[in-house]
Design goal:
Length: 230
């Protein structure tokens, strides 16, 4: 190899390794993520935004996710929404019920460790408008034995969400990693009023008592993805 060529290659190598060790989170979000995710609150939050967006809104990511989960997931993204973004575009008629058309789903981009850490930091710095999430209302009680019953039977959550036992619906995000993935205050606020957080989302706003809200939140908080919920 000619010496100047070798020098050029090693300089290029050094430049890449330097870039990786000094990863710039906000720059990664802008260049690699903004094409699919809203990083600032969209002006138009009506139904066509939900219909047209290519990925979930991330402008309130710092109010929603647990950082350790983000760092892991960005390196190894495992599907959260069984039918991708979004449900109605990725299902076809089955014999009895609609089934997910897997061939229309794509893999999520992956980040290397240093980039995942930097992107997670930048995401945690994104917070939504004041009051979007109700902070401090959830009292962190142990889920009562009623909680699973509320989720699976009484309040119909199971129709759209799975909890890792192979049952449960497909049109909402899985919740069997809910406790690892989501902040308790976010879970509480979302169940209380989904449209306050995502104006045109199809999760119904139910009239749920404060006690049941606490119970449903506790139930999801203890779902860790590793074991089946009791
Ligand atoms: C081609 C479009 C596309 C690009 C580019 C993309 N994403 Fe995504 N992202 C998606 C989709 C679709 C989902 C939903 C995946 C699922 O539910 O399994 C998603 C989900 C996520 C989630 C979980 C959100 C939630 O509410 O559950 C995070 C966090 C995320 N992406 C971060 C990023 C970051 C950081 C980047 C840039 C490095 C990025 N994404 C680039 C399409 C994209
Ligand atoms: C008709 C379907 C439907 C029903 C019924 C439903 N949900 Fe949802 N839920 C959704 C959809 C759709 C989303 C958000 C979709 C997205 O972000 O892509 C959601 C989001 C959530 C989230 C936030 C999860 C996340 O990863 O962003 C929680 C927590 C949640 N639901 C809990 C519940 C609970 C508890 C019940 C029962 C009281 C319930 N849901 C009933 C469809 C439903």
């Amino acid at each position: 190899m000619k010496p100047y060529l070798f020098a050029a290659i090693s300089a290029g190598f050094l430049a890449t390794s330097f870039a990786a060790s000094a990863a710039d989170g906000p720059a990664i979000l802008e260049s690699k993520c903004a094409s699919c995710h809203a990083l600032t609150q969209p002006e138009n939050s009506a139904l066509d935004h939900v219909w047209e967006r290519k990925g979930p809104d991330l402008y309130y990511a710092g109010d929603k996710f647990n950082k350790p989960w983000l760092v892991e997931w960005l390196q190894d993204p495992i599907r959260i929404r069984p039918a991708g973004e979004f449900y109605f575009k990725h299902v076809k008629k089955g014999d009895k019920v609609d089934v997910v058309d897997e061939s229309t789903l794509t893999e999520h981009p992956k980040l290397a460790k240093a980039d995942a850490e930097a992107a997670a930091d930048a995401l945690m710095a994104l917070t939504g408008p004041e009051g979007l999430i109700e902070k401090g209302k959830f009292k962190d009680k142990k889920a009562s034995p009623m909680a699973k019953m509320l989720f699976t039977k009484l309040r119909g959550c199971y129709a759209c969400h799975s909890t890792g036992d192979g049952k449960g619906g497909l049109s909402g995000p899985e919740l069997h990693t809910g406790g690892e993935r989501l902040q308790p205050d976010f879970i509480y606020s979302y169940i209380k009023d989904p449209q306050k957080i995502d104006k045109s989302v199809w999760m119904p706003k139910l009239n749920i008592s404060e006690q049941d809200l606490q119970n449903l939140t506790s139930y999801i908080v203890q779902l860790s993805g590793k074991k089946e919920a009791k």
